[in-house]
C-alpha cells in the first residue's frame, strides 16, 4: 500500500498529491521487478539495483529560471549624479 496507517484512518483512498513522484517511482520499481521475474523485460543485463536504475532515469521537472537575476543596488548608484555649478 502507498498509504500510511494514519492516512487510511483518515479515510483516504489515494496517497496525497505531494507524494506523487515517490508513489510513481515505487510503482515503476514493482513493474520492473515483475517484468524481469517473468522474462518480459527488453533491457538486459538486468539491473542489480532496480530502484537506483529507475531513479537515475526519471524525468526531472526542475529548470533553471529563465528570468534575469535581480540585484539590489545601493541608493547612491541608483540616482544620476548631481551637477553643481
From TrEMBL:
GO MF terms listed in the record are: NAD binding
Domain Malic enzyme NAD-binding per the UniProt entry, residue ranges: 3-35
- Identify this protein by name: NAD-dependent malic enzyme mitochondrial-like protein
Q: What is the lineage of its organism?
A: Eukaryota, Metazoa, Chordata, Craniata, Vertebrata
